[in-house]
Amino acid sequence: MAVTEPAPAVPPAARALEGPRTTVDGSAHEGILRRQAQRESAARTYARSLPIVPVRARGLTIEGADGRRYLDCLSGAGTLALGHNHPVVLEAIRKVLDSGAPLHVLDLATPVKDAFVTELFATLPAGLADDARVQFCGPAGTDAVEAALKLVRTATGRSGVLAFSGAYHGMTAGALDASGGATDVRVARLPYPRSYRCPFGVGGDRGAELAARWTESVLDDPKSGIPTPAGMILEPVQGEGGVIPAPDDWLRRMREITEARSIPLIADEIQTGVGRTGAFWAVEHSGVVPDVMVLSKAIGGSLPLAVIVYRSELDAWEPGAHAGTFRGNQLAMAAGAATLAYVRENQLAERAGALGARMLGQLQGLAAAHPSIGDVRGRGLMIGVELVDPEATGPDGLTPPPDAELARAVQRHCLDRGLIVELGGRLGAVVRLLPPLTLTDEQAAAVLDRFADALAAAERAHRPRPSGSPH
């Protein structure tokens, strides 16, 4: 399990730390950061908001080159299901290294690959695993999205794709086209149901129903301008879009709508998979069995690995139609098989569901005392806190507008207190928590304590009280 970190409500910035440190002197630490800024491209992101130099990590904890320790609730953007350097992952990697097995074999069959596929299929929804094919796509989730889109276009002979507002599917051209904000005419954008900031102004079950009706109308209206597409791609929980869980009834409607019209349904489980949401795969909450599942991040046990799993009837492409030099990553397959087995055998998905529900409840309690928290939402250990300006009125005249500046301030104050968090949502105003599934109760309390303290400090600096106002 993960290393337990003390849980002070307000940990001092320079708190003494037990155990050995891996440090460099201050000038060297700053020099590493300075050279990174000079040498790397303007596209770098995490390094800008998280100016630390990690040198050692275990479980939830990262230690920087300056000796400071941080609770990591970014987890490699959800990649580290078991946290940093989990013993079962390290042992799996060492076993391959010590065996003398080849590390690079393209897509040839190996015992390591066979074990990974066997473990992966053991976790899949039964309705898919019973008659499925798997394609190794390359190192990143965006490669798997590209493969999924190519697969359904080949199988159906159609070219269009249905995607959803707020979606994020990767950074390559096709994946970007299916993400929110793209303008590719081959991708039709549909409303994703949201209770907070509902596009129809009603929220809840009614908003989800209207979103489903809109989808049906677009598909059935010959004058909608959208011909029958090759497939529909969706996230069971939109992660980068602001941690927005899809209602289970709506997901079932999407399955019914696509199945009735012979449209393959693609579930992007890159971030939601491997127990993150409280079920091994997020589609299992609704009982939906998609035609294609896009998998990456946690399935590689912290190393690069991406696959698609799909119904055999879609397996219509020719040999070499989608390939990649590094799709046979043996170390990733070994680490991934160990991770999948550990999550399954130790019921970590169920643990994530129970602990995540408690954390959501505590954050909702915090929101009652902080009007700058507009909404708290999530599923399992995939949690989002949307920050707003409570003194302003949004375009709908009802909901306060998102406050991205406050969110950035909260992220900085979290880092000052030894807590790493990510931002997301439409304007970057959602603080995201993605702790490892090995999170302990004590660690969860520490995370929430540090977040609450950072929020209060950011509020004081961001919107100071007028002179003479009560404290």
From TrEMBL:
Its cofactor is pyridoxal 5'-phosphate. Keywords: Aminotransferase, Pyridoxal phosphate, Transferase. PROSITE patterns: AA_TRANSFER_CLASS_3. Residues 1-29 are annotated as: Disordered. Its EC number is 2.6.1.76. Pathway: Amine and polyamine biosynthesis; ectoine biosynthesis; L-ectoine from L-aspartate 4-semialdehyde: step 1/3. It is an enzyme of class 2 (transferase). It comes from the Bacteria. Signal peptide: none annotated. PANTHER family: DIAMINOBUTYRATE--2-OXOGLUTARATE AMINOTRANSFERASE. Belongs to the class-III pyridoxal-phosphate-dependent aminotransferase family. NCBIfam families: dat. This is Diaminobutyrate--2-oxoglutarate transaminase.
